[in-house]
Structure formats: C-alpha cells, structure tokens
Amino acid sequence: MEKKASSFSGQIGFVLAAAGSAVGVGNLWRFPYLAAKDGGGLFLLVYLVLVLTFGFTLLTSDIAIGRRTKQSAIRAYETMRPKWKFLGILTFLVPVLIMTYYAVIGGWITKYAAVYLTGQSAAAAEDGYFTSFITSPVSPVVFALLFMGVTAFIVYNGVEGGIERVSRYMMPILLVLVVVIAGYALTLRHEDASGQMRTGLEGLRYYLTPHMEGLTVSRFLQILLDAMSQLFFSLSVSMGIMITYGSYVKPEVDLNKAVNQIEIFDTGVALLAGAMIIPAVYVFSGTEGMSAGPSLMFVSLPKVFNAMGKAGVFVGILFFVTAIFATLTSCISVLESITANCMEIFHSGRKKTVLVLAVIYLAASAIIALGYSIFYFEVQLPNGSAAQLLDIMDYVSNSVMMPFIALLSTILIGWVMTPDYVIDEMQRNGETFRRKKLYRVMIRYVAPVMMLVLFLQSTGILA
C-alpha cells in the first residue's frame, strides 16, 4: 500500500495522540461513578482484566488495520473485502453523529472553567445553575461554537503540525493535573452536621476495597457489563478513529509497544480520575454523593469544590482545565476521523475539507446546544430513558452503532480474514507479538459474544 501523505513523527507522537483520543470526558464522569456503584475494588479488578483481554483485542485490531491498509475506515474495510465496504460506511457514520454534540459538551466544560477563572465558583454550586445554563438560548451556543472553532483550527493544521503538537503538550499536562488533584483529594478532611469525620484516605480505601456484600451472579454480570461498556467506549474503538490514527503510523513503529502504552495511559488516567473524584466526593457528601453522567461533573463536584472553601476555587480551575484537555483531544480525533474519510472519498485537500466540515458542525453544534431550549422535546428511548436531541445522537452512535460495528468487525477479522491479517501486521518488523494466542481466542470466540451481549444490553433489548 502506498505511503500516506500525513503521518505521526514517531511512536511517541502516535501514542500521545491516540491516548488523547481514548482519554475523554467518560474517564472523568463515568468511570468514577461506576467504580463507586459497582463495588469499588471489585469493579477495578474486573476492569483491569478486561483491559488486558477485551480492550487489547479491539484496540490492536483497529490500529493494525489502519497501518496495514494505510486508509481510513471506509476504504480500509473496502481494501480488506470489497463486500464489507458497508461496515466502513457504518463506522464512518459514528463520528459523523458524535461530532454533532461533542463540542456542545466541550462548551459546557469551557463555561465552567470560565466561571471558576472569573471568581464565580459559588454561583456554580447553587441548585439549578447547570439547568439554567443549558436551557439558555445564547450561552451554550456561544461556548459550543468556541470549542468547535478551536477543534477545527487544530485539525486544519494537519497531523504532525496540529494534532500531534497539541497532544504532545496537553497529555503530559493532563496527567500532571490529575495526579496533583488526586494527591490533594487524599489530604481532605471534613466533619458533617452529625459530627462524623470523613477523610480523603477513607474515600480512597472505599474506592480500592472490593465490596463483596450481597454479590450474586446477576449482580456480578451487571458489574461485568458496566466495566465492558466503559472500556469499550473509552478506547475510541469501532468509530474509525484508531483506524485513521493507525494509518498515520510509520512502518518502523513497534505496534506492540504502542498498544501497550496506549492501554497504560488510558487506564492510568481512569484509575487516577477515580482516586481524584471519589475521595473528594466521599469527604463532603459520603457514598451517596456519587451520581451518574453530567450531573457528577456539573452539579455534584461544584458543590464539593465550594465546600473546600478558598482552596476549592483553585482545585475547580485545575479540574475543569483538565476536563477541557481530555475533551478537546477526543473531539480533535473525532473530527480528524471524519476529515480523513472525506479527503479519501472526495479527493479533496485537508484545508478545504476542514473548512467545509467546520461550517457544517458549527451549525450542528448550535442546533444541539439549543436542544434544551428552543428545540426542546423529549422522547422515550428503547432502553427506557427519556431523551433530548443530544441524548438521541449519543444513544444511536454509542449504544446502537458502536457495539454493532464491533460485533461485525470481530466476525470479519476472526472468520473472514482470519486473525493472521492483524497478527502479521503486529509482527511486521520481526517483533514478537506476545499476546498472539490470546488475540486469536479473543477475536474469534470471546469478543463476538461479548459484543453481542453488550449490543443487546446497551439497546435495552437485554434487561
């Protein structure tokens, strides 16, 4: 396959960019919630086992396909098997949908960072602040457009000059910020109204200790599903991103080491996020303080920061800057995946493609941002939850399409192409693919079953 015009400068550039894609807002608002809900250390043990088996298999497949074909999703699957081009089209549609709302979430985070930087942190801790913000017809749109504009500017500047350069700065800073906040959280102490004293170290113990009380087979299966879905969505697989990034990897790069490093970085940040958030919430709100989704980041945590006093303002600034970095690097990867596919389909240059996509997604972001005000409506999803515009896009892309695509890709690689298609690429330069036997078993037998179960569960078919 001919060399692609764009490429990462080397292994470090690729790993940091790929880790930036994998480390997203879900690491900050979903992982800690699930860890607290699903037995603390028990969830962590299950998650780590899945990282080394299930996550490794899917991540390896996407990156190896990208480098071997030197194409983005649509052309990559077509190159593998022309009749499977439809899978590439489905994969391409995932980031197309996600991009409509990711900048909106990035805009919310940017708004909160601005609030803390301008000394209005007390207002952010008030009941109803988040709701009043997202239901405004102006402010959410402005911040979404700002975030979308920054994302487009970085992608406009190319792989090495834009994406890699930003990732080289942002990812180390993000890691340092998470470590600093986690370290501070462990020093916290607070006495509640009843006189009970809670400390950050107690919160850490609650986070790390496996809670086996009341554990049943059904309960364990739910924990397994939660860990599997979190890992699946965290790694940026089955949405074409890692295929695109893999296509930018130079032939001499050792993919075995690169995959290991991406796994370590993504998992490390997730574990540190739990050590950062759970002890802090535990100290000021107890075990009842953990909540799911945006309410953790935009409702619960501002109250925790406010309870810290003056130090909470500084911690809040650090946290939301960290969240901006995590969201921006992920948003960049989503737009880059769309850009790369469009460049291949329409034979257009990067700058023209990004400008056209920027106009489209500035408009789309504005519409989604207004989904809680002017364009507000509510529908019932098959999984039973009530949804607005943003939730619908998220459900279709994340809960329906991604597990379905992953299921089909495991069948394609495991049974149509055979695992050797990926294994040969992993050993391209004579490197030893140490988990080769594990990969064969996972891609052919285990991963397809896991993806089928996850698809049935995430769509609400399997209760």
Rounded to an integer in angstroms, the radius of gyration calculated over CA atoms is: 21 Å
CATH superfamily: Hydantoin permease
Number of structural domains: 1
> Would you count the extended β strands for me?
4
**What's the helical proportion of residues?**
over 70%
Run of helices and strands: HHHHHHHHHHEEHHHHHHHEEHHH
Spatial separation of the terminal alpha carbons: 45 Å
Uncertain segments: none
Question: Helix tally?
Answer: 20
In round numbers, the mean pLDDT is: 93
Strand order within the widest beta sheet = 1-2
| CATH fold-level label | Hydantoin permease
Structural class: mainly alpha
- What proportion of the residues form beta strands (DSSP E)? under 5%
CATH class: Mainly Alpha
Major sheet, described briefly?
A: 2 strands, antiparallel
Shape: globular
CATH architecture: Orthogonal Bundle
Keywords: Membrane, Transmembrane, Transmembrane helix, Transport
Subcellular location: Membrane
InterPro entries: Na/ntran_symport, SNS_sf, YocR/YhdH-like
Protein name: Sodium-dependent transporter
Walk me through what this model shows:
The chain crosses the membrane at residues 12-29, 41-65, 86-109, 129-157, 169-187, 220-243, 264-284, 311-335, 355-375, 395-417, 438-456. There is one protein chain. The protein has 463 residues and is mainly α. The protein contains 20 helices and 4 strands. It has helices at 11-22, 25-29, 31-37, 41-69, 73-80, 85-117, 121-124, 129-134, 139-156, 159-185, 200-208, 217-234, 241-247, 255-285, 294-307, 310-346, 350-369, 389-417, 420-426, 436-458; strands at 189-191, 197-199, 379-380, 386-387. A hairpin with a 5-residue loop joins strand 3 and strand 4 (386-387). Helix 4 (41-69) crosses helix 19 and helix 13 (241-247) packs across helix 16. It starts with 10 loop residues before the first helix and ends in a 5-residue tail after the last helix.
